[in-house]
Amino acid sequence: MPRLRRILVVGLVAASMLASGGAAAQAKEKAPKAPKPCPTKLLVLSAMPVEIDPLIAELDLERTVEINDRRFFVGRLRGNRVILAITGIGLLNATQTTEDAFAHFRCRKQSAIGGVVFSGVAGGDWIGDVAVPTRWTDDLGETFFPVDEGMLAVAHQVAAPGAVTLTQDVHVGDPACVCKDVPELTTVTATRIEHVPQVVVGGDGTTSDPFNGRRLPCFPAGGDVFGCDPCKMPREDPPDAAAFATGIAPFLDPGFFTGYFEAPPEADPAYKAQDMESGAVARVAAAKGKPFIAFRGVSDGQGDPLMLPGFPFQFFAYRTISAENAAVATLGFLDRWAQR
């Protein structure tokens, strides 16, 4: 009898173990699969084709998304998952494009955008320099949006001597966007600045709205400043000319643009960079809780060998060197950001 009891006990224990193991296996089979992680992307913005073209030239494009007539180029750039886009010129364009990106690019209930980088031109101290302000305002200094500290730390690495090579040559560029397949035409040097350009981190940046709350439309076939698309990636179906005609109507007052030539806005020495987009983008990024930084090549400032009378004359003369140098600094930043 004792032997029989031992056999029964051992049998009951074994049966219990098999049952619990089977139940665990069954539970494991029924457990839902963990969702795939959501890899974030950097939203890299520029206002004009001349600013984004150096970045597009190095982009490993995966797909193109069109939102409200703006194209967003998704792919990889210098080791980073990125979304590239032209915002268009001005505060309202910059705000709408940034908000559209945050609304569209999502992974389940999360934003797919992990940070925002702006690469473009601006007024500043020395032509050819790249200004990286530590904070931005879009309301004349009433509110400031600080640049992300982690991004600033990487920008300081880019600003170190020898980290990147900025050019002193002012190239002819591609003002009509006709040289997509003939890149050598864009490298012809028009002049050379004497100042040795550098990346300068620090100070404040300001964004103004010279269009008084109106949205400046891009121009179909508008070249490397007013065009709707990168010169290096024109679309097969251009924007509707009728929509452009409607959008441009408020700007047809001759006094609107002649005012720039008769009394161009004066540079404010309190700011290291003065533009029409960065502060607006910084405001949206701050509202979304995402890091932001802007690299602004100086197109109008000191060191002009042609001695032109400021904006907008200097802008049109030096837009290529400032856009190229901003892109070089931005690419240097992306190199280091990917290695963090």
Q: Explain this structure to me?
A:
The chain has one domain (about 40-340): Nucleoside phosphorylase domain (Rossmann fold, 3-Layer(aba) Sandwich), CATH 3.40.50.1580. The strands form three sheets. Strands 1, 2, 3, 4, 7, 8, 9, 10, 13, 14, 15 and 16 form a twelve-stranded mixed β-sheet that branches. A two-stranded antiparallel sheet has the order 5-6. The protein starts with a helix and ends with a helix. It is about 35% helix and about 25% strand. By secondary structure, the chain is of the alpha/beta class. It is built from nine helices and 16 strands. α2 runs parallel beside α9 (about 315-340) and α3 packs parallel to α8.
List keywords for this structure.
340 residues, alpha/beta, Rossmann fold, 12-stranded mixed β-sheet, two-stranded antiparallel sheet, 9 helices, 35% helix, 24% strand
